[in-house]
Amino acid sequence: MSEAAPNFEGLLREALAPVEPPADLVKRLEGPLMSITEMAADELEAWELSAMRDPRNWARPAVALVAGGVAGAALVLLRARRRTGPTQTGLGELRDAAEQTIRDLGRDTRRLLGDR
Amino acid sequence: MAEQLSQKPKAQLDAEFSDLYRAHLRDVYSYAYYRVGDHHDAEDLTEQTFLQAYRHFERAQRESNGRPLRPWLIRIAHNLAANLYRDRARKPASPIDETTVLASPHTTEQLVEGRDELSRVLDGVRLLPDDRREALIMRFALGMDNREIARALGRSDGATKVLIHRAIKQLEELVVEHGGSERSSRNGRSPAV
Description:
With 116 residues, chain A is mostly helical.
């Protein structure tokens, strides 16, 4: 036990050093996020519909529509551009995760921020 | 009426969300990386976290009464990760990429020794129960204090303090045990039980 004890927390801090996000993630995320923040809600609806006309975008937006959110759709489109050939398993997981997260979020926001 | 009064102009909200994003992108990414174990999934999780956060940002701000929103962001990432991976193994799918370990220069010997030691620590972190592992990630990778961790995990401050203490203790034992068994293997003996 004494082997690890002296500065174990320091070791842990070194092992779990913060990880810088890749530069391309910063760019990739910043673009859509900033675009979303600049769009009005009605523009976003039109944007989602126009994106749906492109068959390449059908799979991911379908998941987003299940999730029922503008931001979800933005994410899905973002990914549709980045990747091709998602597996059914991946889609199912993403859809389940999005649905569950939306349900959890309202409850958590109230719980986490409501009490001092 | 009260709700109307509390509403901010959209441009202001958006500017504040941009600030939040810039301030905490590294935190969310680091959490995601240590939580899921590889950069690809960490990127996805980070994207989802911020997009979900944007959906609920106004309400979160309204209800936060000026308190930091980092625990709320990490909570979103936590929920997304839990939901996304609930059908997979509960631990990270792949070992944490060792290239992230050791950022500062060392001599060759130190490098090998240091890498071994840090790898053992990371291996140990992966073996911890989920709540303990997450608490350690929040404390050491993100530098969150007990109160922030408590809010992110939905626990009391006291329970969080105990959780972290036990997590460190268990991890120390795992690291020593793992180090001992490695040495024994090298010497051709079975590790002591």
